[in-house]
Design a protein that fits this description.
- The protein is mainly alpha-helical.
- The protein has one domain.
- It is 70% helix and 1% strand.
- The chain contains 18 helices and 2 strands.
- Strands 1-2 form a two-stranded antiparallel ribbon.
C-alpha cells in the first residue's frame, strides 16, 4: 500500500506543471523554476515504476469488461498516434505517458486481493487534496463576494504554483460539497460541524466563481443525491438554498439576467470549428496527445469528445465514449443507485460520492476536456470508476464485507 500511495502522490506531484517548464529558458534560472520543471517528471517516474512492476509481476490484465479498459485503449491508440503522427513527438509522448500513469497504477491496484480497501485509500488521498485546495482559495473568493477584490477569470493556487480558472476552482468546491453532504447523512455527530462548515465553504466558492459547469454539476449532483439517499428532511433546506445559488450566481451575476448569455459558449464554438478542420486531415487516428495546444496556437478544445478526437481520431474517441457509456451501464445494470441506500459503513458515502462525481464529470465533459488528457478530472474519475466497477462486480456481496478477488 505504501508503494501505491507513493505512486499516486507522484502522479499528483506533476499537476499544474508540464514539460514546458523544462523546455522554458528560465528552467535553471532559480530554485522555483527548477522545482516546477522537476515536478513535471514525477508522473513519468510513476509510469516507469509501474511498468517495471507489471513486467516483473505479470499480473492478470484487470480491465476486461471494465470501462477503464476503454480508457486504456484510448491512451494506447494515442501513444501510437503521438509516436508517428504528432507534429512534436517529444511533447505528445510526454503527455500520453503521464495519462497512462494513473491507469497503470490502477492495474497494479486491481491486481491486489485487497483492491477495494486500496481504492478507498486512493479516494481519500484525492479528498485531502481537494479539501486543501478548496479551503486555500476560499479567502480569495470570499474577498470577491464582499467587494474587497475584483472578479477575475483565475484564482491563485497555494504555494505560488500558478493560476487556476474559475471552472477549475468550481470543480474543487463541488467535490468538497459532494463529500460533505454525503458524510453528513452517513456519519455520526462527531464530525457533523466540520461537514456542515465544508458545505457552507463549498457553496460560497461555487457562488463566487460563477462557474456554469460547476453550477450545472451542482444541480445534477442534488438530483443524484436524492436518488441515492432517498427523501430526507435536509432537502427542505438544501433544495431552496442550491436553487437560489444557481439562480443568483449563474443567472443574475454571470448572465446579468439574460438567458442568451447564460447559454453562450464564450468562444468555444470557434475553437471547435478549428479543431474539426484539423481532424479532417487525420480523421481516423488524429494527431497525438496535446495536439490542440500544438496545432491550434495553444488553444484548448473545451470538449472531451472533440479533444479525444483530435488526439486519437474516430478510432480513439469511440473507445473514450465507450468508457463513459460503460460506467453508466454498470451503474444502472447493477442498480448501484438504489443499492447505495442499503450500504453500510464507509461503503455508503463512497458509493454515493463516486456516482455523483461521475455524474458531475459526465456533464462537465461537454464543456471541458474531462479525462481526455492528464489533469485533475482524470485523477478524480479513474478512482471513482474503479470503485463503481468493484461494487458492480460483487453485487451479491454486502458492500461492507472484504472482497477477495477483483478480476
Amino acid at each position: 500500500m505504501l508503494f501505491i500511495t507513493f505512486l499516486w502522490i507522484l502522479i499528483w506531484g506533476g499537476m499544474f506543471s508540464g514539460i514546458y517548464n523544462i523546455q522554458s529558458p528560465r528552467f535553471l534560472s532559480d530554485p522555483f523554476s527548477i522545482m516546477q520543471g522537476v515536478r513535471s517528471l514525477f508522473p513519468i517516474l510513476a509510469f516507469y515504476l509501474c511498468l517495471i512492476w507489471i513486467l516483473a509481476k505479470r499480473p492478470k490484465f484487470p480491465f476486461l469488461r471494465n470501462p477503464l479498459g476503454f480508457l486504456m485503449s484510448y491512451s494506447l491508440i494515442g501513444f501510437l498516434t503521438s509516436l508517428f503522427l504528432s507534429v512534436d513527438t517529444t511533447t505528445s509522448i510526454y503527455w500520453v505517458s503521464i495519462y497512462l500513469a494513473p491507469l497503470l497504477v490502477f492495474w497494479s491496484i486491481l491486481a491486489e486481493e485487497s483492491a477495494r480497501s486500496i481504492v478507498q485509500k486512493i479516494i481519500y488521498i484525492n479528498y485531502v487534496i481537494f479539501f486543501f485546495i478548496a479551503f486555500s482559495v476560499f479567502p480569495e473568493v470570499a474577498k470577491i463576494l464582499l467587494g474587497r477584490a475584483r472578479l477575475t477569470s483565475y484564482n491563485h493556487l497555494p504555494f505560488n504554483l500558478g493560476l487556476m480558472t474559475k471552472n477549475g476552482t468550481g470543480r474543487f468546491a463541488l467535490v468538497v460539497f459532494i463529500v460533505a453532504i454525503s458524510r453528513m447523512s452517513s456519519q455520526g455527530k462527531r464530525f457533523r460541524f466540520f461537514w456542515a462548515a465544508s458545505t457552507l465553504v463549498s457553496l460560497i466558492i461555487l457562488a463566487g466563481t460563477q462557474s456554469r459547469t460547476a453550477l450545472l454539476g451542482l444541480a445534477i449532483c442534488l438530483v443524484l443525491y436524492v436518488l441515492l439517499q432517498g427523501i430526507n428532511w435536509r432537502f427542505l433546506f438544501l433544495g431552496p438554498v442550491i436553487t437560489a445559488i444557481v439562480w443568483v450566481s449563474g443567472v443574475k451575476w454571470r448572465a446579468h439576467g439574460q438567458w442568451d448569455m447564460l447559454l453562450s459558449l464564450t468562444g468555444r464554438q470557434g475553437t471547435w470549428q478549428r479543431g474539426l478542420e484539423m481532424i479532417k486531415h487525420s480523421p481516423l487516428l488524429g494527431w497525438g496527445f496535446n495536439a490542440d495546444r500544438l496545432m491550434l496556437n495553444l488553444e484548448h478544445m473545451h470538449n472531451s469528445y472533440l479533444h479525444a478526437m483530435i488526439h486519437t481520431g474516430i478510432v480513439g474517441v469511440l473507445f473514450f465514449i465507450a468508457a463513459i457509456i460503460g460506467i453508466w451501464y454498470l451503474i444502472f445494470r447493477h442498480n448501484l443507485i438504489f443499492r447505495a441506500r442499503g450500504a453500510q459503513g464507509s461503503d455508503k458515502p463512497l458509493l454515493m460520492e463516486s456516482v455523483m462525481i461521475i455524474g458531475f464529470l459526465t456533464a462537465r465533459s461537454f464543456f471541458e476536456s474531462t479525462a481526455a488528457f492528464y489533469g485533475v478530472d482524470l485523477l478524480l474519475l479513474i478512482p471513482a470508476m474503479a470503485y463503481v466497477v468493484l461494487a458492480a462486480r460483487h453485487e451479491s456481496v454486502p458492500l461492507e464485507e472484504p472482497i477477495a478477488e477483483v478480476s
